[in-house]
Structures are given as C-alpha cells and as structure tokens.
Design goal:
Layout lengths: L7 H7 L1 H9 L19 H6 L2 E6 L1 H18 L3 E5 H4 L10 E7 L5 H12 L3 E6 L5 H5 L2 E4 L12 H20 L5 H12 L1 H9 L2 H11 L4 E6 L2 H17 L2 E6 L16 E5 L6 H12 L4 E7 L4 H5 L2 E5 L7 H19 L18
Parallel strand pairs: 1-2, 1-3, 3-4, 4-5, 6-7, 6-8, 8-9, 9-10
The structure holds 6-O-phosphono-beta-D-glucopyranose.
Catalytic activity: D-fructose 6-phosphate + L-glutamine = D-glucosamine 6-phosphate + L-glutamate
GO molecular function, one term: glutamine-fructose-6-phosphate transaminase (isomerizing) activity
Protein name: Glutamine--fructose-6-phosphate aminotransferase [isomerizing]
C-alpha cells in the first residue's frame, strides 16, 4: 500500500535511500576490500577474453545503461556499446564468445530485452542480467545475475529501480576494474566509501523538495522543456526528460549541452524552462558557458551542481546544490530532483501519475 503517500511514485522516490542501501548491503562493505557479487561468476581469466560489452535494455533501464557505459569504460577500460533491445536484436549485431552482454530490466520480463538476451546466448555471449525480480525470465535465462534490491516498484514511471540499477552498474564496473587491474585498491576504497554514503546524501536531497516543487508549480503550464548536461550529466538529462514526458506529457528534450548550438538552439525561446546539470568537474566551465547561451535567449534555468560550486547561482534563476560526492557517482543524486520535478509537474497538471496513459509497467509483447 501507499503508506500515507498520495501516489506510489512519490513513495518510491522516498524509498530510494533504503533501496540504495539494500542493493549495496553485503556486496560492498566498509571493512572489506572484496566486492561480493555472488551470482556473477566471471573470473579474471574470463574477463581477459572479453573484448566488447553490450549493455541492452528498454526505457529507463536503457538510461541506466548509458551511465553504465561511461562507468565501465572509465573503471574497467573495456569498450561498451549501449543499445535499445528493440534495435539491437534486429541489426544483426556482432556477437561471439568474447562478447559480454549486460541486460537491464526492472521486471525481468520485457519481451525485447529477453529476446536480445536469447540472441546473445545463441551466439555464444556471456550474459549478465541486472533485474529487480527474483526468478524473472531474464534472471532464469542469463548466465549471471545481479539483483537490485529496490523492492516492488508499482508506479509505471521507474525511479528506485533506476537508481539501484546505477549502483549495480558501479559495482560491476568496480569488480571488473579490480579483476583486470585498472582500479587500484586505493581507488576502489575511495569510490566504495563514497558509494556507502549515497543513501544518506539521497536523503538530504529529498529534504530540498520545496525548491523543486516551487519550480514545478511555476512552470507546469509550459509545453516544452530542455534538459542539458555533458558526460554523465547528459545521461541523467535523458532520464530526467523521459520522466517528465512519461507522466506529465510535457514535451522535453535532453541535449548534450555542447551539441545544442549544432542543432536546436533556435527552440530556446523566452520563458522556456531549462534544467541544467553541472556536476562534472572537468566539464563544469563548458557547461556554465552553455547555460549562459540559453540564459541570453531568455530561458528560465534551474541548475544543479555540487555544494561549493556557487558559480551556478550567477548564471541561473534557481540553483540547487547536491551533497558533494565523486563526480562519477553524481547520477545517483542528481536524478532525484528530476524525478521530483516530473512528479510535482504531473500532479499540478492533474495527470494520473502512477498510471500514465498508454504505458504499461512491463511490456511483454514485441
Ligand atoms: C516500459 C515501462 O514499458 O518498460 C518503463 O513503461 C520501463 O517504465 C521499460 O523503463 C523497461 O522495463 P523493464 O522492466 O525491462 O526495466
């Protein structure tokens, strides 16, 4: 049941600190340098043979895969391609026994994802499934499984499944990076220690909900929105834009911030809400200049950065500060206000938040 919340979606958004914690419990531990992913049996020797990883999923799970690509490539230095299951399976992909596939599916029953998994296995790939449902089809058919412990997700728009999928991706990337020597023990400890603090930092963000609520109420009648970011922030922008489209039927476009001027900057008109993410240190200055480009065209900008990066307040209408963590972990925190923004916008627009039109929680047809 909804436990006092108005909708399942907001309940599930608030369950994220616990879901994150549960997904890490007994896998990464403060006093232990081993990563224990017991249903992933890949050895150092197995990993040496892998020359390509495909991350395959649909919808929100696909967006977790986009983050996964950045993270696996960064930490394990293995090339990763991300694809929609419904594209991958029909494009005669190059798969052999040196291929590893990671399929992501909250329900574990999505028809296209399951078909992609089968295609991979038929062609000799090893397949890891990341899923939230014990004993689901993808869990049964994959070679290796990593469960997210998000608990049941009822709202059609995925929230806690996404953030726990991110954590699953970090753990796999770290595990591979440790196995193949790309991540030193010192680096591992630094990332692990920061990961273990994510639940409390997620909680701190939830406590800033009023700022997001205010922005949502001020802009809920707009028909278009833009979500901008670079690198991992772009990956989160994709998910933020999807959330608002799914449940409030506002058209939203996620753009790699540096690409805007090569494309649709003409659509940035006076009064358009722009959600700008600037959590990546290396890209911070570049993103700030992209924010200035939209501000000069009259956009209303809400910008997200880590505490201490006060420069965003100078270039935006509303600045939201996230508790400091490693840039690589930022997506787990920065997506939360975007989920809230989608939620409050949908509520204000009178939408059926938990059951958006034309969408199903799990699509078992192709
Ligand atoms: C869609 C849902 O049909 O399937 C999305 O509406 C979801 O919310 C997508 O992200 C993928 O689902 P799953 O269960 O494979 O993660």
């Amino acid at each position: 049941e909804k436990g006092g919340y108005e909708h399942f979606m907001i309940k599930e958004i608030y369950e994220q600190p616990k879901a994150l914690k549960d997904t890490m419990t007994s896998r990464i531990m403060a006093d232990n340098d081993d990563i224990i992913l017991d249903k992933i049996k890949i050895t150092k020797e197995d990993l040496e043979k892998i020359n390509r990883i495909y991350v395959i999923a649909c919808g929100t799970a696909y967006h977790a895969g986009v983050v996964g690509k950045y993270v696996i490539e960064k930490l394990a230095r293995i090339p990763v391609e991300v694809d929609f299951a419904s594209e991958f399976r029909y494009r005669n992909p190059i798969i052999d026994s040196n291929t590893l596939m990671i399929v992501l599916s909250q329900s574990g029953e999505t028809a296209d994802t399951l078909a992609a998994l089968r295609l991979g296995k038929e062609n000799g790939a090893r397949v890891i499934a990341i899923t939230n449902v014990v004993g689901s089809s993808v869990a049964r058919e994959a070679s290796d499984v990593l469960y997210t412990w998000a608990g049941p997700e009822i709202a059609v728009a995925s929230t806690k499944a996404y953030t726990t999928q991110l954590v699953a991706m970090y753990m796999i990337a770290l595990h591979f990076g440790r196995l193949n020597g790309n991540v030193t023990l010192e680096q591992y400890r630094e990332i692990r220690d920061e990961m273990l603090k994510l639940p409390e930092k997620a909680q701190a963000i939830l406590e800033q909900k009023e700022t997001i609520q205010k922005f949502a109420y001020a802009h809920h009648t707009n028909k278009d929105m833009f979500y901008l970011g670079r690198g991992l922030d772009f990956a989160v922008a994709l998910e933020g834009a999807l959330k608002i489209k799914e449940i409030s039927y506002v058209h939203a476009e996620a753009y790699a911030a540096g690409e805007l001027k090569h494309g649709t900057i003409a659509l940035i008109e006076k009064g358009i809400p722009v959600i700008a993410l600037a959590t990546q240190d290396e890209l911070f200055e570049k993103t700030i200049s992209n924010i200035k480009e939209v501000v000069s065209r009259g956009a209303h900008v809400i910008a997200f950065a880590f505490e201490g990066n006060d420069d965003i307040a100078k270039v935006s209408d509303v600045a939201v500060y996230l508790p400091k963590t490693l840039p690589i972990l930022a997506p787990v925190l920065s997506v939360i206000p975007l989920q809230l923004l989608a939620y409050y916008t949908a509520v204000e627009r009178g939408c059926d938040v938990d059951k958006p039109r034309n969408l199903a929680k799990s699509v078992t047809v192709e």
